[in-house]
């Protein structure tokens, strides 16, 4: 199994428009970050986690020619607004793209993208359907078994996903002990760390490190990173040995 981090940046991406800070001006390509997303594959089935505004560039960058399903963590724009980019997959595969989402997220998709769910769509429209997603209830897509795990993004419930020895969680601020128990034993953990300062709906760096220590994975990779956190070269020097900054294009194999 393999996960590819397609984007590791916050909702504005990095560099931020108009910013001249050290991170935004960095020549290191690992400091340039699309909006947060990941692809999970077993070599046959490709499952995308979130489809933000950079989806088209992300698919082209890694040469994805087919996509079997999209998992949604939650309904914020930087995680769903790329829905229209499913059209090439609709056309190439002659299929309606399945999105796996909670009932709340489904309602938002229907409200914002009603044209993608019409029974008689206009020619060229994206075609989507929504499959039910509930915490603690595993789903199987092709040969990939996925366990949805619930966390909190401020007051909003969001979904994290465990696939065997790998767990992916973003836009998390708090997670209940019973859900943490479902993550323990993970070898590879991807977790958000927005910035050093506390934030009302995202883990700060210190909060993420505390949660990583509690889960105790073999390796943890930070995602949903803002330009306030620092450059990869500087920050990796101060992180624990089993924690690294994720970067766009990083591959995790288990």
What attributes does this structure have?
7-stranded mixed beta sheet, alpha/beta, Metallo-beta-lactamase, Chain A, globular, 21% helix, 14 strands, 254 residues, 7 helices
Give a structural overview.
- With 254 residues, this protein is α/β, with parallel strands linked by helices.
- It has one domain (2-245): Metallo-beta-lactamase, Chain A.
- Helices cover 21% and strands 27% of the residues.
- It has helices spanning 55-62, 77-80, 87-93, 103-112, 177-183, 205-215, 232-238, and strands at 2-7, 37-41, 46-49, 69-71, 97-101, 128-132, 139-141, 144-153, 156-163, 166-169, 188-192, 219-223, 243-245, 251-253.
- The strands form two sheets. A seven-stranded mixed sheet has the order 6-5-4-3-2-1-14. Strands 7-8-9-10-11-12-13 form a seven-stranded mixed sheet.
- The termini are close together.
- The model has no long low-confidence stretch (mean pLDDT 97).
């Amino acid at each position: 199994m393999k996960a590819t981090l397609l984007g590791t940046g916050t909702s504005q991406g990095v560099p931020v428009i108009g910013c001249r800070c050290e991170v935004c001006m960095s020549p290191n390509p690992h400091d340039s970050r699309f909006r947060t997303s990941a692809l999970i594959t077993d070599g046959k089935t490709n499952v995308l986690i979130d489809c933000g505004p950079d989806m088209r560039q992300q698919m082209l960058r890694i040469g994805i020619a087919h996509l079997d399903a999209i998992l949604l963590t939650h309904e914020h724009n930087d995680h769903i607004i790329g829905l229209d980019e499913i059209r090439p997959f609709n056309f190439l595969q002659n299929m309606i793209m399945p999105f796996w989402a909670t009932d709340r997220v489904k309602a938002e998709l229907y409200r914002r993208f009603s044209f993608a769910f019409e029974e008689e769509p206009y020619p060229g429209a994206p075609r989507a359907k929504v499959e039910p997603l509930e915490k603690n209830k595993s789903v199987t897509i092709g040969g990939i078994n996925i366990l949805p795990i619930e966390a909190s993004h401020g007051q909003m419930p969001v979904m994290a996903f465990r696939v065997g020895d790998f767990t992916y969680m973003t836009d998390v601020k708090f997670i209940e002990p019973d859900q943490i128990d479902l993550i323990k034993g993970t070898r590879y953990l991807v977790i958000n760390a927005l910035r050093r300062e506390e934030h009302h709906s995202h883990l700060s760096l210190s909060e993420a490190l505390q949660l990583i220590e509690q889960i105790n994975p073999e390796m943890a990779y930070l995602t949903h990173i803002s330009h306030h956190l620092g450059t990869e070269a500087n920050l990796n020097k101060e992180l624990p040995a089993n924690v690294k900054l994720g970067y766009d294009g990083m591959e995790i194999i288990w």
